[in-house]
Amino acid sequence: MPLFLASKELRSSLFFLTDIKLQNINWQTAANQQEHHTDKYYSQELVLRRGQPFSFSLTLNRPLSYEESLAFITSTGPSPSESARTKAVFPLSNAPRSDSWNAQLVLQRDSTLTISISSPANAPIGWYALSMQISSGGSNATLKLGVFKLLFNPWLQADTVFMSNQAEREEYVLEDAGAIYVGSSNRINMVGWNFGQFEDDILNICLSILDKSLNFRRDPVTDVARRGDPKYVGRVLSAMVNSNDDNGVIAGNWSGNYVGGRDPRNWNGSVEILKEWKKSGFRPVRYGQCWVFAGTLNTVLRCFGIPSRVITNFNSAHDTDRNLSVDVYYDPMGNPLDKGSDSVWNFHVWNEAWFVRNDLGPSYNGWQVLDSTPQERSQGVFQCGPASVTGIREGDVHLDFDMPFVFAEVNADRITWIYDSSRNTSKQNSSDTNTIGRYISTKAVGSYSRMDVTEKYKYPEGSSQERNIFEKALEKLKPNRTFGPTSATEAEREEREPSISGRFKVAGILAVGKEVNLALMLKNLTSDMKTVTVNMTAWTIVYNGTLVHEVWKDSITVSLDPEEEIQYPVKITYAQYEKYLKADNMIRTTAVCQAPDEAEVLVERDVILDNPTLTLELLDQAHMRKPVNVQMLFSNPLDEPVKNCVLMVEGSGLLLGSLKIDVPTLRPKERSRVRFEIRPTRSGTKQLVADFSCNKFPAIKAMLSVDVAE
After folding, report:
1. Residues with catalytic roles
2. Taking a C-beta distance cutoff of 8 angstroms, is the pair 348, 316 a contact?
């Protein structure tokens, strides 16, 4: 063929290709998103799940000729590349493969083509750009088709987040409201939380969390390539939901002083927090505590399609030196001391995410602990997990990630010490092997009842299996163990068998504004007469054990006949505790009891005071897109006015954003009735959550289930 002829043909095919234009594209959004279980997202762009085909039709300005061939290009992240699997170029094919991107021609009618594209089941999640390449005679023309978002796919068996149980998938992926357990092991309470993972802009904000991470800033190409692995994504998120090392979402504060931000108890859900983070130019939102971090991480995990739930551990140990024991100190007067770095939290809240552990082997698949509360650094950053729940139960503390820390949270020994500052001496008072890690709780599937998952984390307390696992864990940690003051000998423990016992008993109701009435029950366990000196204190505390202020103290000396039990009344007036009580409503009472020439017996009890009731009532049947009235009822129980009253309400599918209502000052014993309007946008059972705060009650919670008809 003459050379000029070849170049002429080339020129004409080039002209022909540059002449081709995209006239219209129909993403078939409703059908695709229903197929992909993403129809709940309020999103302008198409939201898809990986490993599953989606169809769209496109209309060109002319039909394609038989010489012209089609290929598609998908790319994600900056500098996308085929070697990093962040870019794929793939032709139309009749034999789709599950491990790579592929495209099929479903229908061709004149210049309109219907195409089906499928992603691999391990593709990185995130924003994708899609282009079409038309080739003819060695020349190419590329048409940009648009963008879509790709998520994990718990409906697909080939995906590492696959969850086979439909009811569990509904709960742990699609449920946008829930409950978080708080309080103490002897008084478990529940607060509602609005996860709101489908709300407008939340998916975009969640994706931007990944783009703000240290990993992305250091090496964006590798970071984006690793986003197909839920293990990696979960760990990055556990670092990013707290703000300690980066421009993360929430700043933690346990001081009891929340000036310059919001008392953590006042949040009703994650939506407001995530939107505030974006609105502030990605500066940390103030302030959070563990359930706020966990509620927000739960939103992001579910938003990405990783099944997740919120877990509460009561009497949670914070072991700072990896010796699987926590040391707690008191002075001889009964005052709790901020000495040593270990602590026991009344409760601690974290998350479990569900996925396969290819790095550990199939027996460790399933629930994995992720904790975004900043407690200890891991690989130099405040992040925690994923730690396999099965691995924790079996004491496999040598595995990745942060297993010793989580194992200690649920299974450490609690060592109590009496510290005498005048002599600078510490004396071990008791060692308790079964108070840490109680009533590990999560919301049940499909209902608001509490599900206890303690047996998933450890064998029954007191069983030989549990002690054997504890010893196995200690053995595995030996090379890294730092032995603090915890190593008391068995002989020392033996000689300290006490001759007296004590406990605090609640007498009467525990309510904010009322006198706290307890009784110290003291018993002589021997057949000899005993004279006992007792030093007692009461402190207001934050739930993680942070001391706020001493509110009461007393000292007595009593004589006990053989085997006699007496009760000594403890009365703490409202005037004594009112100024120092935090939103946790917690008071720690302690008694150090000593008989001559014997070791002290330490008695303690944390009491939680109830808030007055906040009631929400729906005044009519709720229908989609129609206003309906809700009524809030609250009675001031105090003999003084309550001021600066604010009601905050939110609920996904019931309100757009949150509602803030200023409530007038309430006179002593006055009842308040406030009406407000909601306008449901979704049918089904939805949850309204409310927080009422004022100068005397920093955070009173209520929740209401609303059945919305079509």
Report:
1. 290, 348, 371
2. yes
